[in-house]
Amino acid sequence: xxxxxxxxxxxxxxxxxxxxxxAQALHLRGNKVLIxxxxxxxSARDWHAASEANPLPLVSLDRANNIKTxxxxxxxxxxxVLDGAAKLEDIIxxxxxxxxxxxxxxxxxxxDIWAASDLVDFIKARQEVTDGSPQAAFxxxxxxxxxxxxxxxxxxxxxxxxxxxRTAITQRQIYPQTASEGRTVLDGDNAKARDEINALADExxxxxxxxxxxxx
Length: 216
What we know:
Strands 3-2-4-1-5-6 form a six-stranded parallel sheet, sandwiched between helices. It has helices at residues 15-28, 43-49, 64-67, 89-98, 110-115, 117-129, 149-157, 174-179, 191-207; strands at 2-6, 33-37, 58-60, 79-83, 101-106, 135-140. The protein is built from nine helices and six strands, in the order βαβαβαβαβααβααα. β2 (33-37), α2 and β3 form a beta-alpha-beta unit. Helix content is 40%, strand content 14%.
């Protein structure tokens, strides 16, 4: 079992989109997946409630003390994917401690890159006392096709000395369209969007510790 947290203290970075689509990708590979919404705004909860046929279970843990209970759920799932809160340092700190892997979504904007600084410091401080756990990597979100912004962001993120996923999440209408229906792009008809989510899941599985655990 692995706890995968999608964290960035800046709002609008694409955390919920990444959480829900990645969770569905892992589910479709035969894994038992739980989504945890740790944001008091409840975006993942709203997404989940939009479809009665949603195949993924979801729980709300929007207090730091509640996140500590994740350890009691680990035996029941192959993967737990946590949608992080914004600007709530106690919840973010608790999520870092509970995680095996952290994805940091970053838009191609200097403001998003700067906003990640404190989060990276939190993660590295935790890694120093836990022999490198949790692992962490950046994911570029809302990339605009046909621009060089993605390359510029990768160069800027090099300063943080964390991996950057090769796969970027492109800004496509299919993401908000499927989200409004409680679905993901893997349920839609946009092949490019499906391919990038599946490629992202492949990269994550390859990078995670004990990658064979829970994979069917």
